Amino acid sequence: MEQSGTFIVLEGPDGSGKTTQIGKIEAYLRERGVDYISTREPGGVQVAEKIRSVILDVDNDMSGLTECLLYAAARREHLIRKVIPALEAGKVVICDRYIMSSLSYQGYGRELGGAVLDINKRAINVNGKEYWPDRNLYLDVTPEVGLQRIHAKHAQREINRLDLEEEDFHRRVREGYLNLTREYAGQFVTIDASQSEEHVFADIKEVIENLLFGGAEQDFS
Q1: pLDDT-based confidence at 155, cuts 50/70/90?
Q2: pTM for this structure?
Q3: d(Cα 204, Cα 170) in Å, to the nearest integer?
Q4: Is 133 within the bounds of a domain?
């Protein structure tokens, strides 16, 4: 079955405000009468949510490669069971993280390099087709700001295993994202996430309006 929906992913370092902005996107899409689903990675389906709990548990120490493989396994189940059916039904899919998170966090943060892309290209290949987003909205914020936000909201946000990494790890992750925005320039729109929530959403809404209601179709597969 051919894909007729639109796949939009929010990416960014920890503390970039993705969760807040996804809530605003959901409200906006409802107002516009758009048929959509909102989901997350790792997670979104039962198996992937169980894998998420293993990856993010602060008591679970694991190698970078193990972490990468677990993310890829969760991604494939989520893609097959939730994302692809929604796209084939013509829905807009809003996803909190996807493949660029692995390329940044494991490829750069864990310094696994090109192995991460090789693993994930297998994970997103279903019946000979690789499923890439129509657009990645990259919310850019420095590690200093992102980590400050995380710990300032400690009571409202669960601190996970990746949040507790050293600042150098988070610097490598952001460097990875910035490199990826250049390498995959056609897939990315970069948004300054150090702005107020309202300004960030205004930038996001402009991108989504152009993509869903005013822009030409683009194929990044």
Answers
A1: very low
A2: 0.92
A3: 24
A4: yes
